[in-house]
Amino acid sequence: MSELEILFPEYPTVSVLGKQVTVKAVRLADLSAFGAASGRLLALMAACSTENQAEFAEKHSGDLRRVLRMATSIGWWRARRLPAPVALELFGVVLQVNHRFFTQALAGAAKRLGGQLQHNG
Q1: Whole-model pTM?
Q2: Is 22 helix (H, G, I), strand (E, B) or coil?
Q3: What Rg value do the Cα atoms of the chain yield, rounded?
Q4: CA-to-CA separations, 91 to 6, 17, 31, 36, 43, in angstroms, rounded
Q5: Within its chain, how far is the Cα of 8 from the centroid?
């Protein structure tokens, strides 16, 4: 029917406090929540100050835990017990890996669409 090959990303593993953690692609069902939580965290990091750090601790620590649970093999219990600096560094890895997955998928889609557009037109 089709020669379409779908990208199945290889999930990298990182060591977090001596345990292996798999960084996964965000599922489509979680993409909106992932984007919202990540956006708030990135905005906070871009304007890092003592006040922003306090705001993060008060209002956005749940966002960080949510992102880590969506895109890693870390469970709810373990995510709550990670030291904040470790959780933030792992968040950076999650963003880096998912950005790579996303750009690879976009490039593949653009390539396929480019071929379709040339054939149709």
Answers
A1: 0.79
A2: strand
A3: 18
A4: 26, 15, 15, 14, 14
A5: 16
50 residue type, one letter:
T
Q: Are 68 and 17 in contact (CB under 8 A)?
A: no
Q: Which of 108, 79, 97 is nearest to 11 (CA)?
A: 97
Tokens 């889609």 belong to 109
Question: What is the identity of the amino acid at 86?
Answer: V
Show the 3-state SS of 99-120: HHHHHHHHHHHHHHHHHHHHHH
Q: For 50-65, what is each residue's pLDDT tens digit?
A: 887 787 778 878 888 9
- Mapped onto helix, strand or coil, the DSSP state of residue 4 is coil
Tokens 């020669």 map to which residue?
A: 3
**pLDDT level of residue 1 (50, 70, 90 thresholds):** very low
pLDDT higher than threshold 50 for residue 96: yes
Tokens matching residue 81: 């017990």
